[in-house]
Amino acid sequence: MGRINLTPLRVRRRALADLQANRIPIAPVWLDVVADIPPAQILTRQQPQQHVVTQTRTRSLPDGRTEKVTLPAPTPRKRKSAKPSRLFAPVEIKYEEDKLRKQFFSDHPWELARPRVVVETTGNQHATSDYSKGLLQPNVPLSGESVVQRQLHLLQTVPDITEPQAYDMARREFYVLRRQEATKRRIAKEEAMHMGAQPEMSILQWSMKIENKHYNDWEEWSRQQVVEQMQRSAAFSGEVMNAEDNVLREGAGQGQRPQLGAGFGMRGRSDPFAGEAERRASVNVA
Amino acid sequence: MILRQIVSRHGRTFLSRSTSTSIRRTYATDIDLDHPANKQSEQDHRPIKSTPGHPDEPSSLLDAIGHDLLDRPGPDTISDEAINAGRGLELLGPSKYFNRLERRTRQLQADVSSLRNTIHAQAGQARPTKAEVGANEEQLRRAEARLENTDQHVRKVAVKIRRLELQERLVRESQTEGQARKSELEEIKRKKESLRAQIPSDQRSLLAEAQKLVLQQERLKDEQLKVRQEQDLHFTSIFSPDSTAQQIASTSLTPSRARPLIDSSTLRPGDTPLNAYKDSRIARRSLLSAGTDRADVYQPWAILEKPPYPEDLTLPLLLANQTHLGHATALWHPGNSSYIFGIRDGIHVISLEITLSYLRRAAKVVQEVARRGGIILFVGTRKGHREVVVNSAKLAEPAYHIFSRWIPGSLTNGQQILGDCALKVVNPSDNELDQYRKALSNSTHAALRPDLVICLNPLENEVCLHECGLYNVPTIGIVDTDCNPSWVTYPIPANDDSLRSVTLISGVLARAAQRGQRLRMDAASEGKTTYNTRRVLKALKGMEEIANLDVQEKGRGDRDKGKDKDVD
User: Fold this and answer.
1) SS3 letters for chain A?
2) Which residue from B335, B369, B532 is facing A42, i.e. has the nearest CB?
3) ipTM of the complex
């Protein structure tokens, strides 16, 4: 109870004792194996590995040369817990990039909304990356992480650069690439449409279509209700109220409401009510 | 019903059927016999017992065979003739029969490829390209068009004359008596003259031209046929070796001159199912290369099918396979503190260097135990571990696996739980010794115990590991940050929640075991053993004595004596 069970570690010792006591007639096949490759020491408590954040900078000297120095990053000193239970507890892993990453994504929160593949293939992607050449790296899609790595590279290699300067440089390069991406996408779409591609309705158009269908259904139902009410009251009192009569007459002459947001889709129509009749027909079919 | 075993149907196709996939029919040359899906697995259900001819009986041939037939001992002396005569299944029982078929198929595949090579070597030319085939077809179409344009009567006469000429040549080449040949030749000559006489003298030049066209058409058709047959060799079925060899020889080595005129409609691409199939394959292959190039692609099955060897392990590989991810810091077991690199985003990160060294150490143990002929058991009982343990056990063959549940008492009360299982006695080369089969069946042997247990999820298998401790069996386990490392003899600190990580670790250990087994078999081929055979002989001798005793004594005596027995 509460004791550590060391039986698995002592299989060889016990097998030898059994052998000596003739409890087992012949040594098991693994007896020599466990002797040659003994189990590792377990349950030892060592001092946890410390993770000091360092930063590498290039600075220019008075004689015009530059030198690269690596120093511990200036971090606010936090008092370590003096509790004995904390003495052997693992410590937080920290890197310099953490700060840069935090800044970039607080400035560009929508970058986090872009889908991103995080599955690793080789685990060695950094070996083919060279951030001195820019943000785009082989087999690495452009993302906020590219900016962070580029900024870090600038901070380490450009003499006397400050963090905001490096950030500005990296993010400007990033904006250019994102603009290029958007342009390429737009042109590809235009080309496809020109060659006869028929894009499906957008999510907004679909939702408007469903919503309009519900409105129209409701209108039809409400008219039916009014008719029934009038018939009941006419059967009871023998006359039709003028106002209700007007409502019905008005409704009979008027078409169904135009679709909200119609014409703001991919087909680029300027007139929101153009093609209303066909659309309504398709709605009714649906 | 899952039927992974390769079954011959209609003498020319392979059939592979399982519950998850629809029936797949492919040509024998295309099937990859090394693919796990085409191999018999222990997961596959045995067919249920049923009476042949009963109305409820499934239509499959295998379903009609009971359990007793499946394990029937078959002498290896059964000849190929008996099997070719269709009696293989009843003589050998299904598993041996299909093993034999598989061996035979591999041999045939090798034969066909070597035959193909010799054919090409004899032809002394490379296979015709697509462009050549296309040009040939174009030429043929033009020749046909020109022939259509000639006078109908002249054309008919030209074709008739050509037939007579062919007949004449056949007669000349045949080995009949001189007299009969002469008369036949004269008859043919007379017919030809009469045909020529039908054409007026002013149209003789037209006839000559038509004759030329007929010849050209015939030659082109022959060429086209040859090309198609060479292409079709890929898809030729190879079930019977002799018939195939003859077929290949007759189709490709016979001179084209001896072939009569063949209707060109049967030669159009896409007309026959074979051609349609071939065309679709070509089209698909050409489409695969279109578009963007895919690079740096993650293939989830790669690590399952081809796991790395222990010396190929690198830290990036371990990182990519997520072995470093531990549990939330609150869930940790402090015994793991020396394996933990640090804390990141609230979870413990396991040190990859430590994982690597511990994994290599465990792999060494597995290899040595396998080399000494120990019984290795893979235990992985989480969802998704099934494929992993089965694949590992297959790689490390002969090894064993559990993927459903460790039945408590399998070791400590093994005689009750596993006593009824069949026992296989093998010689150092892993060939079964049939003489012990009868003596060691029907619970007359002691239940076997593993020599090494590899547990992929120790947290759920505490009972298994506890029993291993009680019974003194060394264990290897993947120890996550929330697991007690003292449960196993050789812990491997790694992530046990990611299937990718578990697959990697299990695969590496399986590779090590595979190597150990290979070393053992190498020694066996030199007539040596890598383990002590004294106790095996002693145990078997005792068992034989017991087998000669009467039934009442048999069970008890063996249970006492059989404990020290080992199958290897």
Assistant:
1) CCCCCCHHHHHHHHHHHHHHCCCCCCCCCCHHHHHHCCCCCCCCCCCCCCCCCEEEEEEECCCCCEEEEEEECCCCCCCCCCCHHHCCCCCECCCCHHHHHHHHHHHCHHHHHCCCCCCCCCCCHHHHCCHHHCCCECCECCCHHHHHHHHHHHHHHCCCCCHHHHHHHHHHHHHHHHHHHHHHHHHHHHHHHHCCCCCCCCHHHHHHHHHHHHHHHHHHHHHHHHHHHHHHHHHHHCCCCHHHHHHHHHHHHCCCCCCCCCCCCCCCCCCCCCCHHHHHHHHHHC
2) B335
3) 0.75
